[in-house]
Amino acid sequence: MKVILNEDIKSIGKKGEIIEVADGYGRNFLLKKKKAILATEGGIKEVKAIKEKINEKKAAELQEAKDLAAILDGQEIVFHEKVGTEGRLFGAVTNKEICEQVNKQFNLNLDKKKFDLKDTIKHLGIENCKIKIFPGVSAEIKVRVEAKE
Question: Which of 21, 65, 94, 145 holds its CA 20 to 30 A away from the CA of 13?
């Protein structure tokens, strides 16, 4: 029996997939619990149309992410912080602060979890910060920390 899944089912398939299952399992479990519908010609065409729309949307999001990465890549963000002896900061520059500064400077709405900084910045100088914009698309910015006068 061929069915189209309405939801992800572990070890069977993902939503929208057309799968072949045993007749009893299909009738008594999948169809009865509305976890799948019978795979008819109309249903198969509908699933293909939905998948095409999803693929188009993903392609558009990927292109948007690549454009954003091109804009952000190589940019520099400057922080002016209080400094103690030997160039060490009072406090540190964190992912959250970098995220807020990037969002403010470039008029974006990125999440702080997308910023991959190895450790908080506790000294003067330049550090690289990687921004994971989309799966497979990232940009790297420079974070410059200078002494507050």
Answer: 65
